[in-house]
Specification:
With about 400 residues, the protein is an alpha/beta fold. The chain has a single domain, classed as Histone deacetylase domain (Arginase, Chain A), CATH 3.40.800.20. It has an eight-stranded parallel β-sheet with strand order 2-1-3-8-7-4-5-6, sandwiched between helices. The radius of gyration is 19 Å and the shape is globular. Keywords: Acetoin catabolism. GO terms for molecular function: histone deacetylase activity. This is Acetoin utilization protein AcuC. Belongs to the histone deacetylase family.
């Protein structure tokens, strides 16, 4: 296979813009691609970059109500006419000119990634502008208009996939994807997120395990606020690999919201870029172990647009390209100068936060007084038996 990584990048992504004071600033994906280019990630052998196609209505309507697609198109044509119906025109999802086209480019890009991977035209594919996991069948939600992960998964099923695993490590629960495939046993959704006790969308509890006939198709690991690198990685490895191995997916779709970082302004976990990087490597390995390497990776949330998002997703791109970056790599001077000139901010000097990504594995024992261990056991107890696994299984 000559193409090891298919990357979709298009300046059309920058039109997905809710306005100058909204957290979902398009500059975050622009800075990511600029950084990846300056570090040579996108020039590696076997890496190809293509434009984003526009998803047509037939593709969008595989997961969205046709009336909702029509409402999004109308909102983009007349943003001032929105009254909050369909979740459009709210503080979280302000209407903007060209909303349908901008959102359809993101969805089309993820569908293209899915197609290239499933057909064997690329081993891995990445859309850093994707991962808009909160949109529902008939409503915008949480900065998400069209649910591009669900569109990509639906396209995989249409092409013949019988088992698709979706792993979401965004700090917020991947509620939209879970809801869309709630009754579909062909799709396993696994979400590792901050507990909904104090964070949008307030869902993603261990007892949410899938609908009738699809029991065990959803798994939720809801972690307490303040969870840091070692505890998060311990929890991830205690749940995610076991479920994926039991499900035996043919293709892995992953969402890599980096708003779990300790600097993110909208959430309360405390991960470093280094722990996030470690999760990318783990999911990459699982794609090769279980799916013949078939891996579609998406962006997601992330609202510290200089210090976190560009470094995190450049690591994701480098991992998917098969040439991980040394965490100690200096951030290129040209990129740093661009940030200072365009945003007036001092960017980080290196591609690391100085952590090592170490963790104590679950096999070392369960601590009943530890709230993270309590969360892990709750998830394992709720969903492991539905896959024939023992909740007390050691690694």
């Amino acid at each position: 296979m000559s193409v090891s990584l298919h990357v979709v990048w298009d300046d059309a992504f920058l039109a997905y813009d809710f306005g100058p004071f909204h957290p979902m600033a398009p500059v975050r994906v622009d800075l990511t691609v600029r950084l990846a280019r300056e570090l040579g990630v996108l020039a590696r052998p076997g890496v190809e970059v293509s434009d984003a196609p526009l998803a047509d209505d037939a593709l969008l309507e595989r997961v969205h109500d046709p009336a909702y697609v029509a409402a999004v198109r109308a909102a983009g044509a007349d943003p001032r006419g929105c009254d909050g119906s369909w979740g459009l025109g709210t503080d979280d999802n302000p209407a903007f000119a060209g909303m349908h086209e901008a959102s359809a480019h993101v969805a089309g890009a993820t569908a293209q990634c899915a197609e290239r991977v499933w057909r064997g035209e690329a081993r891995h594919a990445v859309n850093v502008a994707g991962g808009l996991h909160h949109a529902g069948r008939a409503a915008a939600s949480g900065f998400c208009v069209y649910n591009d992960p669900a569109v990509g998964i639906a396209r995989l099923l249409e092409l013949g996939a019988e088992r698709v695993a979706y792993v979401d490590v965004d700090v917020h629960h991947g509620d939209g994807v879970q809801d869309i495939f709630w009754d579909d046993p062909r799709v396993l959704t696994v979400s590792v997120h901050e507990s909904g006790r104090a964070l949008f969308p307030g869902t993603g509890w261990p007892y949410e395990t899938g609908g009738p006939g699809a029991e065990g198709s959803a798994a939720n690991l809801a972690l307490p606020a303040g969870t840091g690198d070692g505890a998060w990685l311990r929890a991830f490895h205690a749940v995610v690999p076991h479920l994926l191995r039991a499900f035996a997916p043919q293709v892995l779709v992953t969402q890599h919201g980096c708003d779990s970082h300790f600097l993110d302004p909208l959430a309360h976990l405390a991960l470093s870029v280094d722990a996030q990087r470690a999760s990318y490597a783990a999911l990459h390995d699982l794609a090769h172990e279980l799916c013949g390497g078939r891996w579609v990776a998406l962006g997601g949330g992330g609202y510290e647009v200089v210090d976190v998002v560009p470094r995190a997703w450049t690591h994701l791109l480098a991992e998917a390209a098969g040439h991980p970056l040394d965490p100690a790599t200096p951030v290129p001077a040209g990129w740093r100068e661009h940030v200072v000139a365009s945003l007036g901010r001092q960017p980080p000097a290196r591609m690391t936060d100085g952590n090592d990504g170490a963790y104590v594995p679950w096999s070392r024992g369960y601590d009943p007084a530890d709230p993270v261990d309590q969360a892990v056991l709750a998830t394992r107890s709720a969903v492991f038996p539905l896959h024939g696994l023992d909740p007390l299984l050691e690694e």
